[in-house]
UniProtKB/TrEMBL annotation:
UniProt GO molecular function: heme binding; iron ion binding; monooxygenase activity; oxidoreductase activity, acting on paired donors, with incorporation or reduction of molecular oxygen
InterPro entries: Cyt_P450, Cyt_P450_E_grp-I, Cyt_P450_sf
Pfam families tied to this protein: p450
Membrane spanning residue stretches: 9-26
Protein name as annotated: Cytochrome P450
Signal peptide boundaries: none
Organism: Solanum pinnatisectum
Domain of life where this protein originates: Eukaryota
Keywords for this protein: Membrane, Oxidoreductase, Transmembrane, Transmembrane helix
Length: 507
Protein backbone atom coordinates (compact mmCIF):
# COMPACT_ATOMS: atom_id res chain seq x y z
CA UNK A 1 0.00 0.00 0.00
CA UNK A 2 2.89 2.30 0.82
CA UNK A 3 4.01 2.26 -2.85
CA UNK A 4 0.73 3.76 -4.22
CA UNK A 5 1.78 7.46 -4.13
CA UNK A 6 5.09 6.72 -5.86
CA UNK A 7 3.19 4.82 -8.62
CA UNK A 8 0.99 7.87 -9.12
CA UNK A 9 4.06 10.02 -9.36
CA UNK A 10 5.54 7.74 -12.00
CA UNK A 11 2.32 7.81 -14.01
CA UNK A 12 2.17 11.60 -13.77
CA UNK A 13 5.82 11.94 -14.84
CA UNK A 14 5.31 9.57 -17.77
CA UNK A 15 2.19 11.42 -18.89
CA UNK A 16 4.09 14.70 -18.79
CA UNK A 17 6.93 13.20 -20.81
CA UNK A 18 4.53 11.84 -23.44
CA UNK A 19 2.77 15.23 -23.68
CA UNK A 20 6.13 17.01 -23.94
CA UNK A 21 7.42 14.62 -26.65
CA UNK A 22 4.14 14.91 -28.57
CA UNK A 23 4.37 18.71 -28.55
CA UNK A 24 8.05 18.54 -29.57
CA UNK A 25 7.28 16.07 -32.38
CA UNK A 26 4.39 18.23 -33.54
CA UNK A 27 6.53 21.38 -33.49
CA UNK A 28 9.41 19.72 -35.32
CA UNK A 29 7.00 18.28 -37.84
CA UNK A 30 5.40 21.67 -38.33
CA UNK A 31 8.85 23.18 -38.85
CA UNK A 32 9.65 20.37 -41.31
CA UNK A 33 6.34 20.87 -43.10
CA UNK A 34 7.26 24.50 -43.76
CA UNK A 35 10.47 23.36 -45.48
CA UNK A 36 10.30 23.03 -49.27
CA UNK A 37 9.46 19.61 -50.75
CA UNK A 38 12.23 17.42 -52.07
CA UNK A 39 13.55 13.94 -52.76
CA UNK A 40 13.97 11.53 -49.85
CA UNK A 41 17.42 10.18 -49.19
CA UNK A 42 18.78 7.28 -47.17
CA UNK A 43 19.00 7.36 -43.37
CA UNK A 44 22.12 9.15 -42.08
CA UNK A 45 23.73 9.90 -45.48
CA UNK A 46 20.65 11.50 -47.01
CA UNK A 47 20.90 12.25 -50.73
CA UNK A 48 24.72 12.00 -50.84
CA UNK A 49 24.91 8.61 -52.64
CA UNK A 50 22.61 9.87 -55.40
CA UNK A 51 24.64 12.96 -56.36
CA UNK A 52 26.07 12.83 -59.89
CA UNK A 53 28.83 14.63 -61.72
CA UNK A 54 27.52 17.76 -63.50
CA UNK A 55 25.43 18.56 -60.44
CA UNK A 56 23.70 21.49 -62.20
CA UNK A 57 22.14 19.11 -64.76
CA UNK A 58 20.84 16.85 -62.01
CA UNK A 59 19.52 19.78 -59.94
CA UNK A 60 17.75 21.15 -63.03
CA UNK A 61 16.11 17.76 -63.67
CA UNK A 62 14.96 17.61 -60.04
CA UNK A 63 13.33 21.04 -60.40
CA UNK A 64 11.06 19.58 -63.09
CA UNK A 65 9.86 17.04 -60.53
CA UNK A 66 9.74 19.11 -57.31
CA UNK A 67 9.18 22.66 -58.57
CA UNK A 68 11.24 25.85 -58.51
CA UNK A 69 12.26 25.47 -54.84
CA UNK A 70 13.13 22.14 -53.26
CA UNK A 71 15.33 20.67 -50.57
CA UNK A 72 17.47 17.60 -49.92
CA UNK A 73 19.66 16.50 -47.04
CA UNK A 74 23.28 15.48 -47.26
CA UNK A 75 24.09 13.93 -43.91
CA UNK A 76 23.14 16.58 -41.37
CA UNK A 77 23.27 19.43 -43.86
CA UNK A 78 20.09 20.85 -45.33
CA UNK A 79 20.44 22.00 -48.95
CA UNK A 80 17.87 24.15 -50.78
CA UNK A 81 17.91 24.75 -54.53
CA UNK A 82 16.31 27.83 -56.12
CA UNK A 83 15.49 27.52 -59.82
CA UNK A 84 13.43 30.53 -60.89
CA UNK A 85 14.16 34.22 -61.55
CA UNK A 86 11.54 35.38 -59.00
CA UNK A 87 13.07 33.23 -56.23
CA UNK A 88 16.54 34.51 -57.17
CA UNK A 89 15.24 38.09 -56.80
CA UNK A 90 13.88 37.30 -53.34
CA UNK A 91 17.33 36.13 -52.28
CA UNK A 92 19.76 38.48 -54.02
CA UNK A 93 17.64 41.64 -53.98
CA UNK A 94 14.91 41.60 -51.30
CA UNK A 95 16.87 39.69 -48.63
CA UNK A 96 20.39 40.38 -49.83
CA UNK A 97 21.88 41.02 -46.38
CA UNK A 98 20.51 37.71 -44.98
CA UNK A 99 21.89 35.72 -47.94
CA UNK A 100 25.13 37.65 -48.47
CA UNK A 101 27.38 35.00 -46.90
CA UNK A 102 28.74 32.09 -48.89
CA UNK A 103 28.88 28.54 -47.50
CA UNK A 104 32.53 27.62 -48.04
CA UNK A 105 33.56 23.98 -48.05
CA UNK A 106 36.45 22.99 -45.74
CA UNK A 107 38.77 22.72 -48.77
CA UNK A 108 37.81 26.29 -49.78
CA UNK A 109 38.59 27.60 -46.31
CA UNK A 110 41.97 25.86 -46.28
CA UNK A 111 42.91 27.22 -49.70
CA UNK A 112 41.99 30.80 -48.73
CA UNK A 113 43.72 30.95 -45.33
CA UNK A 114 40.48 30.39 -43.43
CA UNK A 115 38.26 32.41 -45.79
CA UNK A 116 40.29 35.64 -45.84
CA UNK A 117 39.61 36.10 -49.55
CA UNK A 118 36.73 38.06 -51.11
CA UNK A 119 34.67 35.04 -52.18
CA UNK A 120 34.40 33.36 -48.78
CA UNK A 121 34.90 36.09 -46.17
CA UNK A 122 31.61 36.85 -44.41
CA UNK A 123 29.62 39.98 -45.21
CA UNK A 124 30.96 42.86 -43.12
CA UNK A 125 33.51 45.67 -43.12
CA UNK A 126 36.46 43.40 -44.00
CA UNK A 127 34.68 41.96 -47.05
CA UNK A 128 33.49 45.44 -48.12
CA UNK A 129 36.98 46.95 -47.91
CA UNK A 130 38.64 44.01 -49.69
CA UNK A 131 36.07 44.09 -52.47
CA UNK A 132 36.40 47.88 -52.81
CA UNK A 133 40.16 47.50 -53.04
CA UNK A 134 39.85 44.77 -55.70
CA UNK A 135 37.35 46.73 -57.79
CA UNK A 136 39.36 49.98 -57.53
CA UNK A 137 42.85 48.59 -58.10
CA UNK A 138 42.10 45.73 -60.51
CA UNK A 139 38.81 46.30 -62.31
CA UNK A 140 38.54 50.11 -62.51
CA UNK A 141 38.56 51.73 -65.98
CA UNK A 142 41.68 53.64 -64.96
CA UNK A 143 43.54 50.42 -64.20
CA UNK A 144 42.20 48.55 -67.21
CA UNK A 145 43.30 51.39 -69.49
CA UNK A 146 46.74 51.49 -67.84
CA UNK A 147 47.11 47.73 -68.46
CA UNK A 148 45.88 47.81 -72.05
CA UNK A 149 49.35 47.32 -73.54
CA UNK A 150 49.90 44.22 -71.36
CA UNK A 151 46.74 42.58 -72.73
CA UNK A 152 47.55 43.63 -76.29
CA UNK A 153 51.05 42.17 -76.00
CA UNK A 154 49.82 38.81 -74.69
CA UNK A 155 46.95 38.51 -77.20
CA UNK A 156 49.30 39.29 -80.11
CA UNK A 157 51.77 36.71 -78.84
CA UNK A 158 48.95 34.14 -78.85
CA UNK A 159 47.81 35.09 -82.34
CA UNK A 160 51.38 34.71 -83.66
CA UNK A 161 51.51 31.34 -81.91
CA UNK A 162 48.24 30.17 -83.54
CA UNK A 163 49.45 31.42 -86.90
CA UNK A 164 52.51 29.14 -86.72
CA UNK A 165 50.19 26.18 -86.08
CA UNK A 166 47.82 26.59 -89.02
CA UNK A 167 46.80 23.15 -90.27
CA UNK A 168 47.63 21.35 -87.02
CA UNK A 169 45.48 20.53 -84.01
CA UNK A 170 45.27 23.33 -81.45
CA UNK A 171 44.15 23.05 -77.84
CA UNK A 172 41.99 26.19 -77.51
CA UNK A 173 41.65 25.71 -73.75
CA UNK A 174 45.39 25.58 -73.20
CA UNK A 175 46.01 28.53 -75.49
CA UNK A 176 43.35 30.64 -73.76
CA UNK A 177 44.66 29.61 -70.35
CA UNK A 178 48.25 30.63 -71.05
CA UNK A 179 47.08 33.97 -72.50
CA UNK A 180 44.74 34.74 -69.58
CA UNK A 181 47.22 33.61 -66.94
CA UNK A 182 49.95 35.77 -68.49
CA UNK A 183 47.63 38.79 -68.58
CA UNK A 184 46.56 38.32 -64.96
CA UNK A 185 50.10 37.64 -63.72
CA UNK A 186 51.49 40.70 -65.48
CA UNK A 187 48.66 42.84 -64.07
CA UNK A 188 49.60 41.59 -60.60
CA UNK A 189 53.38 41.30 -60.79
CA UNK A 190 54.39 43.17 -63.98
CA UNK A 191 55.38 41.83 -67.39
CA UNK A 192 58.83 40.88 -66.08
CA UNK A 193 57.20 38.06 -64.15
CA UNK A 194 55.92 36.43 -67.34
CA UNK A 195 59.25 36.96 -69.17
CA UNK A 196 61.08 35.40 -66.21
CA UNK A 197 58.71 32.38 -66.29
CA UNK A 198 59.22 31.98 -70.03
CA UNK A 199 63.00 32.22 -69.62
CA UNK A 200 62.75 29.22 -67.31
CA UNK A 201 60.57 27.44 -69.89
CA UNK A 202 57.48 27.81 -67.68
CA UNK A 203 54.56 28.98 -69.83
CA UNK A 204 51.63 28.75 -67.46
CA UNK A 205 50.82 25.07 -68.05
CA UNK A 206 52.15 24.30 -64.56
CA UNK A 207 49.68 26.81 -63.18
CA UNK A 208 46.91 25.33 -65.29
CA UNK A 209 47.38 21.95 -63.64
CA UNK A 210 47.19 23.67 -60.25
CA UNK A 211 43.97 25.51 -61.14
CA UNK A 212 42.36 22.33 -62.50
CA UNK A 213 43.36 20.45 -59.33
CA UNK A 214 42.08 23.31 -57.17
CA UNK A 215 38.66 23.21 -58.82
CA UNK A 216 38.51 19.42 -58.61
CA UNK A 217 39.24 19.55 -54.88
CA UNK A 218 36.65 22.31 -54.33
CA UNK A 219 34.00 20.41 -56.30
CA UNK A 220 34.48 17.00 -54.64
CA UNK A 221 31.72 16.22 -52.08
CA UNK A 222 33.56 16.08 -48.75
CA UNK A 223 32.11 13.97 -45.93
CA UNK A 224 33.72 16.38 -43.45
CA UNK A 225 31.47 19.19 -44.77
CA UNK A 226 28.29 17.22 -44.13
CA UNK A 227 29.26 15.43 -40.92
CA UNK A 228 31.17 18.05 -38.91
CA UNK A 229 31.85 15.44 -36.17
CA UNK A 230 33.99 13.52 -38.68
CA UNK A 231 35.84 16.58 -39.97
CA UNK A 232 38.90 16.03 -37.80
CA UNK A 233 39.51 12.61 -39.40
CA UNK A 234 39.60 14.07 -42.93
CA UNK A 235 38.43 10.67 -44.17
CA UNK A 236 38.90 11.40 -47.89
CA UNK A 237 42.15 13.34 -47.40
CA UNK A 238 40.58 16.40 -49.09
CA UNK A 239 41.80 18.81 -46.42
CA UNK A 240 45.33 17.44 -46.78
CA UNK A 241 45.14 17.80 -50.57
CA UNK A 242 43.94 21.41 -50.22
CA UNK A 243 46.84 22.21 -47.87
CA UNK A 244 49.34 20.71 -50.32
CA UNK A 245 47.76 22.63 -53.16
CA UNK A 246 48.01 25.93 -51.29
CA UNK A 247 51.73 25.22 -50.74
CA UNK A 248 52.18 24.70 -54.49
CA UNK A 249 50.36 27.97 -55.25
CA UNK A 250 52.54 29.72 -52.64
CA UNK A 251 55.69 28.33 -54.25
CA UNK A 252 54.79 30.41 -57.33
CA UNK A 253 53.42 33.51 -55.54
CA UNK A 254 55.95 33.82 -52.69
CA UNK A 255 59.15 34.48 -54.72
CA UNK A 256 57.34 37.17 -56.75
CA UNK A 257 55.91 38.79 -53.60
CA UNK A 258 59.31 38.70 -51.86
CA UNK A 259 60.96 40.32 -54.88
CA UNK A 260 58.47 43.20 -54.71
CA UNK A 261 58.90 43.53 -50.95
CA UNK A 262 62.63 43.94 -51.51
CA UNK A 263 62.06 46.48 -54.30
CA UNK A 264 59.78 48.42 -51.98
CA UNK A 265 62.31 48.46 -49.16
CA UNK A 266 65.13 49.46 -51.58
CA UNK A 267 62.97 52.29 -52.92
CA UNK A 268 62.10 53.47 -49.42
CA UNK A 269 65.79 53.51 -48.54
CA UNK A 270 66.47 55.51 -51.70
CA UNK A 271 63.68 57.92 -50.78
CA UNK A 272 65.07 58.44 -47.28
CA UNK A 273 68.45 59.25 -48.77
CA UNK A 274 66.76 61.52 -51.32
CA UNK A 275 64.86 63.32 -48.56
CA UNK A 276 68.06 63.89 -46.63
CA UNK A 277 69.46 65.67 -49.63
CA UNK A 278 66.45 68.07 -49.86
CA UNK A 279 67.46 71.70 -49.50
CA UNK A 280 65.62 74.17 -47.31
CA UNK A 281 63.78 75.84 -50.21
CA UNK A 282 62.50 72.46 -51.41
CA UNK A 283 61.15 71.72 -47.96
CA UNK A 284 59.41 75.14 -47.75
CA UNK A 285 57.91 74.72 -51.23
CA UNK A 286 56.59 71.26 -50.37
CA UNK A 287 55.08 72.65 -47.17
CA UNK A 288 53.43 75.39 -49.22
CA UNK A 289 51.51 72.68 -51.12
CA UNK A 290 50.33 70.87 -48.04
CA UNK A 291 47.02 72.18 -46.79
CA UNK A 292 47.01 70.50 -43.39
CA UNK A 293 50.09 71.90 -41.69
CA UNK A 294 48.32 74.53 -39.60
CA UNK A 295 49.71 77.62 -41.40
CA UNK A 296 49.11 78.68 -44.98
CA UNK A 297 52.46 79.31 -46.59
CA UNK A 298 52.73 81.25 -49.84
CA UNK A 299 55.64 82.50 -51.94
CA UNK A 300 55.70 85.95 -50.23
CA UNK A 301 55.91 84.37 -46.78
CA UNK A 302 58.62 81.94 -47.93
CA UNK A 303 60.67 84.83 -49.26
CA UNK A 304 60.16 86.73 -46.01
CA UNK A 305 61.52 83.75 -44.08
CA UNK A 306 64.48 83.48 -46.42
CA UNK A 307 65.25 87.19 -46.15
CA UNK A 308 65.11 86.87 -42.38
CA UNK A 309 67.54 84.02 -42.46
CA UNK A 310 69.89 85.66 -44.95
CA UNK A 311 70.18 88.95 -43.08
CA UNK A 312 70.04 87.29 -39.67
CA UNK A 313 66.67 88.72 -38.60
CA UNK A 314 65.10 87.15 -35.52
CA UNK A 315 61.42 87.40 -34.64
CA UNK A 316 60.14 90.03 -37.08
CA UNK A 317 60.43 89.95 -40.83
CA UNK A 318 61.68 92.73 -43.04
CA UNK A 319 58.33 92.98 -44.84
CA UNK A 320 56.77 94.21 -41.60
CA UNK A 321 59.32 96.98 -41.07
CA UNK A 322 57.63 100.30 -41.45
CA UNK A 323 60.04 102.71 -39.78
CA UNK A 324 59.89 106.23 -41.11
CA UNK A 325 62.74 107.10 -43.40
CA UNK A 326 64.27 103.73 -43.93
CA UNK A 327 61.18 102.16 -45.64
CA UNK A 328 62.35 103.17 -49.12
CA UNK A 329 65.82 101.72 -48.59
CA UNK A 330 64.25 98.56 -47.24
CA UNK A 331 62.04 98.23 -50.34
CA UNK A 332 65.07 98.62 -52.60
CA UNK A 333 66.91 96.04 -50.53
CA UNK A 334 63.96 93.65 -50.84
CA UNK A 335 64.00 94.02 -54.65
CA UNK A 336 67.66 93.09 -54.57
CA UNK A 337 66.93 90.02 -52.46
CA UNK A 338 64.07 89.11 -54.82
CA UNK A 339 66.41 89.19 -57.81
CA UNK A 340 68.73 86.75 -56.02
CA UNK A 341 66.06 84.48 -54.48
CA UNK A 342 63.52 84.29 -57.35
CA UNK A 343 65.68 82.30 -59.83
CA UNK A 344 66.66 79.84 -57.07
CA UNK A 345 63.03 79.42 -56.02
CA UNK A 346 61.84 78.95 -59.63
CA UNK A 347 64.46 76.27 -60.19
CA UNK A 348 63.37 74.40 -57.07
CA UNK A 349 59.70 74.71 -58.10
CA UNK A 350 60.50 73.19 -61.48
CA UNK A 351 62.43 70.33 -59.86
CA UNK A 352 59.46 69.64 -57.58
CA UNK A 353 56.95 69.62 -60.40
CA UNK A 354 59.19 67.34 -62.53
CA UNK A 355 59.49 64.94 -59.63
CA UNK A 356 55.72 64.96 -59.05
CA UNK A 357 55.09 64.22 -62.73
CA UNK A 358 57.58 61.34 -62.54
CA UNK A 359 55.76 60.00 -59.51
CA UNK A 360 52.38 60.16 -61.30
CA UNK A 361 53.85 58.29 -64.27
CA UNK A 362 55.37 55.69 -61.96
CA UNK A 363 52.04 55.37 -60.13
CA UNK A 364 50.17 54.70 -63.35
CA UNK A 365 52.45 51.80 -64.06
CA UNK A 366 52.16 50.33 -60.56
CA UNK A 367 51.26 46.65 -60.49
CA UNK A 368 48.62 45.31 -58.15
CA UNK A 369 51.22 43.73 -55.87
CA UNK A 370 53.02 47.08 -55.41
CA UNK A 371 49.75 48.78 -54.53
CA UNK A 372 48.79 46.06 -52.06
CA UNK A 373 52.22 46.01 -50.39
CA UNK A 374 52.20 49.80 -50.07
CA UNK A 375 48.69 49.70 -48.60
CA UNK A 376 49.87 47.06 -46.14
CA UNK A 377 52.17 49.68 -44.65
CA UNK A 378 49.48 52.34 -44.34
CA UNK A 379 47.57 52.18 -41.11
CA UNK A 380 44.61 54.41 -42.07
CA UNK A 381 42.96 52.53 -44.94
CA UNK A 382 40.10 50.97 -42.98
CA UNK A 383 41.43 47.38 -42.98
CA UNK A 384 44.69 46.04 -41.70
CA UNK A 385 46.26 44.26 -44.64
CA UNK A 386 48.97 41.69 -44.07
CA UNK A 387 50.80 39.25 -46.32
CA UNK A 388 48.34 36.41 -45.68
CA UNK A 389 45.35 38.60 -46.62
CA UNK A 390 47.17 39.80 -49.74
CA UNK A 391 47.85 36.20 -50.75
CA UNK A 392 44.17 35.34 -50.16
CA UNK A 393 43.11 38.09 -52.62
CA UNK A 394 45.69 36.87 -55.14
CA UNK A 395 44.39 33.29 -54.90
CA UNK A 396 40.87 34.63 -55.69
CA UNK A 397 42.09 36.59 -58.69
CA UNK A 398 44.35 33.88 -60.09
CA UNK A 399 41.88 31.03 -59.61
CA UNK A 400 38.63 33.03 -60.05
CA UNK A 401 39.90 34.94 -63.05
CA UNK A 402 41.36 32.14 -65.13
CA UNK A 403 39.12 29.09 -65.23
CA UNK A 404 35.95 31.18 -65.67
CA UNK A 405 37.39 33.04 -68.65
CA UNK A 406 38.83 29.90 -70.24
CA UNK A 407 35.54 28.02 -69.82
CA UNK A 408 33.82 30.89 -71.63
CA UNK A 409 36.34 30.94 -74.49
CA UNK A 410 35.98 27.17 -74.96
CA UNK A 411 32.18 27.33 -74.98
CA UNK A 412 32.12 30.26 -77.43
CA UNK A 413 34.42 28.41 -79.82
CA UNK A 414 32.41 25.15 -79.44
CA UNK A 415 29.12 26.91 -80.13
CA UNK A 416 30.58 28.68 -83.17
CA UNK A 417 32.01 25.44 -84.55
CA UNK A 418 28.64 23.71 -84.03
CA UNK A 419 26.74 26.59 -85.64
CA UNK A 420 28.53 27.38 -88.93
CA UNK A 421 25.95 29.99 -89.99
CA UNK A 422 26.57 31.97 -86.79
CA UNK A 423 30.34 31.57 -87.24
CA UNK A 424 29.99 33.00 -90.74
CA UNK A 425 28.03 36.04 -89.42
CA UNK A 426 30.74 36.70 -86.82
CA UNK A 427 33.39 36.52 -89.55
CA UNK A 428 31.40 38.91 -91.78
CA UNK A 429 31.15 41.41 -88.95
CA UNK A 430 34.89 41.14 -88.22
CA UNK A 431 35.64 41.67 -91.91
CA UNK A 432 33.42 44.73 -91.97
CA UNK A 433 34.48 46.38 -88.67
CA UNK A 434 38.14 45.33 -88.38
CA UNK A 435 39.17 44.50 -91.95
CA UNK A 436 40.95 41.45 -93.33
CA UNK A 437 44.48 42.70 -92.80
CA UNK A 438 44.05 44.10 -89.31
CA UNK A 439 44.13 42.66 -85.84
CA UNK A 440 41.17 43.10 -83.48
CA UNK A 441 41.81 45.83 -80.93
CA UNK A 442 39.81 46.53 -77.79
CA UNK A 443 38.67 49.77 -79.45
CA UNK A 444 36.81 47.66 -82.05
CA UNK A 445 34.69 45.93 -79.41
CA UNK A 446 31.91 48.55 -79.09
CA UNK A 447 31.24 48.11 -82.83
CA UNK A 448 31.21 44.30 -82.81
CA UNK A 449 27.54 44.00 -81.83
CA UNK A 450 26.91 40.52 -83.20
CA UNK A 451 30.02 39.11 -81.51
CA UNK A 452 28.88 40.74 -78.26
CA UNK A 453 25.48 39.02 -78.58
CA UNK A 454 27.21 35.68 -79.23
CA UNK A 455 29.27 36.09 -76.04
CA UNK A 456 26.20 37.02 -73.98
CA UNK A 457 24.19 34.11 -75.36
CA UNK A 458 27.07 31.76 -74.49
CA UNK A 459 27.19 33.19 -70.95
CA UNK A 460 23.48 32.46 -70.69
CA UNK A 461 23.62 28.90 -72.00
CA UNK A 462 26.87 27.88 -70.33
CA UNK A 463 27.44 29.95 -67.16
CA UNK A 464 30.96 29.33 -65.86
CA UNK A 465 29.70 28.82 -62.29
CA UNK A 466 26.24 27.28 -62.94
CA UNK A 467 25.35 27.12 -59.23
CA UNK A 468 27.32 30.27 -58.27
CA UNK A 469 29.03 30.15 -54.88
CA UNK A 470 26.38 28.51 -52.64
CA UNK A 471 24.98 30.88 -50.01
CA UNK A 472 24.33 30.42 -46.29
CA UNK A 473 21.58 32.55 -44.68
CA UNK A 474 22.73 34.29 -41.50
CA UNK A 475 19.22 33.83 -40.03
CA UNK A 476 16.10 31.85 -40.81
CA UNK A 477 14.23 33.34 -43.79
CA UNK A 478 11.08 32.79 -45.84
CA UNK A 479 11.61 32.29 -49.57
CA UNK A 480 8.82 31.31 -51.97
CA UNK A 481 6.59 30.79 -48.91
CA UNK A 482 8.92 28.16 -47.41
CA UNK A 483 11.27 28.37 -44.44
CA UNK A 484 14.98 28.31 -45.12
CA UNK A 485 16.64 27.79 -41.72
CA UNK A 486 19.86 29.61 -40.77
CA UNK A 487 22.94 27.74 -41.98
CA UNK A 488 21.23 25.99 -44.94
CA UNK A 489 23.33 25.54 -48.07
CA UNK A 490 21.44 27.51 -50.75
CA UNK A 491 22.16 26.79 -54.40
CA UNK A 492 21.08 29.46 -56.87
CA UNK A 493 20.72 27.36 -60.00
CA UNK A 494 21.52 29.96 -62.66
CA UNK A 495 21.88 27.16 -65.21
CA UNK A 496 18.14 26.42 -64.80
CA UNK A 497 17.20 30.11 -64.49
CA UNK A 498 19.05 30.96 -67.72
CA UNK A 499 17.03 28.28 -69.51
CA UNK A 500 13.65 28.97 -67.89
CA UNK A 501 11.15 28.10 -70.68
CA UNK A 502 8.81 30.85 -69.47
CA UNK A 503 11.46 33.41 -70.39
CA UNK A 504 13.54 31.76 -73.13
CA UNK A 505 12.49 29.87 -76.23
CA UNK A 506 13.71 26.27 -75.97
CA UNK A 507 15.51 25.08 -79.13
C1 LIG B 1 34.16 35.40 -68.10
C2 LIG B 1 34.82 35.58 -66.97
C3 LIG B 1 34.25 35.46 -65.58
C4 LIG B 1 33.09 34.88 -65.15
C5 LIG B 1 32.02 34.18 -65.99
C6 LIG B 1 33.03 35.04 -63.71
C7 LIG B 1 32.00 34.60 -62.90
C8 LIG B 1 31.91 34.78 -61.54
C9 LIG B 1 30.82 34.34 -60.70
C10 LIG B 1 29.57 33.62 -61.22
C11 LIG B 1 31.11 34.68 -59.43
C12 LIG B 1 30.28 34.34 -58.19
C13 LIG B 1 29.15 35.30 -57.99
C14 LIG B 1 28.26 34.86 -56.84
O1 LIG B 1 28.25 33.72 -56.40
O2 LIG B 1 27.55 35.72 -56.35
C15 LIG B 1 32.39 35.37 -59.44
C16 LIG B 1 32.99 35.90 -58.34
C17 LIG B 1 34.24 36.45 -58.35
N1 LIG B 1 35.07 36.61 -59.44
FE1 LIG B 1 34.61 36.21 -61.35
N2 LIG B 1 34.16 35.69 -63.29
C18 LIG B 1 34.93 35.97 -64.39
C19 LIG B 1 36.15 36.63 -64.43
C20 LIG B 1 36.82 37.04 -63.30
C21 LIG B 1 38.11 37.69 -63.33
C22 LIG B 1 38.91 37.98 -64.62
C23 LIG B 1 38.46 37.93 -62.03
C24 LIG B 1 39.70 38.57 -61.51
C25 LIG B 1 40.43 39.42 -62.15
C26 LIG B 1 37.36 37.45 -61.19
C27 LIG B 1 37.34 37.52 -59.81
C28 LIG B 1 36.24 37.18 -59.03
C29 LIG B 1 36.17 37.41 -57.58
C30 LIG B 1 37.26 38.04 -56.71
C31 LIG B 1 34.91 36.95 -57.15
C32 LIG B 1 34.32 37.01 -55.75
C33 LIG B 1 33.49 38.29 -55.71
C34 LIG B 1 32.65 38.47 -54.45
O3 LIG B 1 32.58 37.59 -53.60
O4 LIG B 1 32.03 39.53 -54.32
N3 LIG B 1 36.41 36.92 -62.01
N4 LIG B 1 32.85 35.41 -60.74
Amino acid sequence: MASAPSNDLWIAALTLLVVFLTILWYKLNQEESRLPPGPRGLPIVGFLPFLRANLHHQLTELSQQYGPIYKFWIGGKLCVVLNSPSLAKEVVRDQDSVFANRDPPIAGLVATYGGLDIGFSPYGSYWREMRKLFVREMLSNRNLEACYSLRRHEVRKTIRNVHTKIGSLTDIGELAFVTEMNVIMSMIFGSNFVEEMEKHKKDGTEFRELVIKYLQIMGKPNISDFFPMLARFDLQGIQKDAEALLKSVESILDPAINKHLKMLSDRREGEIQGNEKKNFIQILLQLMEQKDIGISLDLVKIKAILVDIVIGGTDSTITTVEWEGIQKEMEALLKLFDSILDPAISECMKMLSDRREGEIQRNEKKHLIQILLELMEQKDIGISLDLVKIKAILVDIVIGGTDTTITMVEWVMSELLNNPEIMSKVQQELKHVVGMNNIVEESHLPNLHYLDAVLKETLRLHPALPLLLPKRPSQSAIVGGYTIPEGTKVFLNVYAIHRDPQVWKVH
